[in-house]
Amino acid sequence: MDKNSWIGLVLIVGVLFTWSYFTRPTEQQIAEQRRQDSIAQIERERNKQELVIENQQKQSPVISANETGNTANTNDQLNQFYGDFAPAAKGEREFYTAENDLIKLQFSNKGGRIYSAELKNYKKYDGTPLILFSGDSTEFGLNFFAKNRSIATNNLFFELVEGTNGKVVTDKAETFAFRLMVTPGKYVEYRYTINPESYVVDFDIKIEGLQADISTNTGYLTLNWKSYITGQEKGRSWEETNSTVFYKFHEADVESLNMRSDSDQKDLTTPVKWISFKQQFFNVALIADNYFSNALVKTEKEVINPNFLKQFSASISLPYDAKQSLDYPMSFYFGPNHYKTLRKMDIDLERVIELGMSIIRWVNVGLVIPLFNFLGKYMGNYGLIILLMTIIIKLLIFPFTYKSYMSTAKMKALKPEVDKISEKFPKQEDAMKKQQATMALYKKVGVSPMGGCLPLLFQMPLLIAMFRFFPNSIELRQEAFLWATDLSTYDAVINLPFTVPFGFGDHISLWCLLMTVVNIVYMKFNDQMSMSNQKIPGMKMMMYMMPVMMLFWFNSYASALSYYYFLSLLITIIQTWAIRRTINDDEILAKLKAASANKKAPQKSKWQQRLEDMAKQKGYQPPKR
Length: 625
Fold this sequence. Notes:
This protein is an alpha+beta fold. It has helices spanning 3-22, 27-59, 72-82, 236-241, 339-344, 358-376, 382-396, 398-413, 415-424, 431-445, 453-469, 510-529, 539-554, 559-581, 585-597, 606-617, and strands at residues 95-99, 103-108, 113-123, 129-134, 138-146, 149-152, 159-162, 167-168, 174-183, 186-194, 200-208, 220-230, 244-249, 254-256, 263-268, 272-278, 282-292, 294-301, 308-319, 325-336, 492-500, 505-509. The chain has 2 domains: 84-353, Beta-galactosidase, Chain A, domain 5 (Distorted Sandwich), CATH 2.70.98; 361-596, no CATH class. It has 16 helices and 22 strands. Helix 7 crosses helix 14 and helix 9 (415-424) runs antiparallel to helix 10 (431-445).
């Protein structure tokens, strides 16, 4: 090889070395990759393990500690799969209950987990007990490797070492402790503390003496949590689109998976404060005392079993250090999506309630919810509360409504003058001159074409805030008013034998129908005030199509929302009629002309006056106006 070849070879090696040095993974990336590999290996081992157990259960569905006969082969298999944890792999399932004034929990010794959670002060839409989850549709437990064996505590039997079955917690907290025994002094313990009159259950995971059993290269233990979400409301499609997984990053924002997607997932690579399996009006949240290292969250629509809406899952990483004793403090929330209740927890859990973003949420939090709660202190009929809310809000925005109407009335009064300008410039090529002359007229009399739009734009955040508030207000759930038996869902007065597409559904909602009728009347009022809708092709048809489109959109929405829009439109029509009765177009035009005649010429600024003086000194005379 010649000199140039050697130089080229050295340069190539240098480039490769430099590239590999600067693109090598960071320590955090290496740790994350190890965690992902660990999770994948656990899942593979767990699938093989569940397949073996399933085959065993085909011959003996429950491996009971009281069974007699030859169990040598079974014991050998369990020892092969579980090692020191094999004694906990066989037993009989037992259940224990505990409750306070708000929740009733059922525990299972298999997995040492909460088997079902019932909210005592709420019912499903059909009147049956409201159970957030129940049975084997939920999984919850630690996954880790112990002496090269994949251990999933969800499949192992725990012992109740503390707590009284059937305990009703009234005055002080009660603890239930389930222990997965390995050998004396070696165990995994789940401790549940039920507090009186609280939706929060304290939960601690304690690991004792397993530092020699759990694999030495383990950096994380995986807490697997999966649950099929049961439908609780009459409007399945609406509840389904309002159910998803929410999560809050440690000292950061609250985010969620896509509600309207059939499936979604996200790998949360930064610390997480809490994870919530959220439904329309209820949620189950797992809250870290400090934070979880990271997590993988998923949601998937259920298409097989009609009793379930979706499946939620979270694989949560708990940092592991090979110590004699480890403690992971956290807590559960089993309860309603009630704004004040969640707000008191001071962890941003109230953000699971869909109240809109930015200014829309501010309107709901700062105005709508306080007003709603204030009126709720003095009356129990939510139909009347919504009526009073509507009247109060309409009074608050009446100055803007009046200003908008007056601006429209002025434009209407000027219409004859605008028509004269149109006659003066009939040709298409004179459109620019026509526009300039029209704007000059508006400026001369002091009228802004946007004067009627800006007040309406100011009211839009309030209208959108109501759209968010009513369908998500649990106070309206199963509250009746007139023919509506539940203001939080649609009020079906006619059930159809078929389903109408485009979101209409298989029913007719009377409040939505009344809202549509009043909306058409409102459009008619606006049409009478309009200057040029008749001259714009298709504009009138589009204007009257909007109420029909809203009929399709709102027919399956909360009847409280349709009721509010019905009242709002009705009051607006009354206000418009009352204002119109006090206004005369000729008087408005006369006032505009008088104001134009008395309008003073705008004063010149000092800078403008100085420029004119300089121009005059040079012999320039400005044109006379």
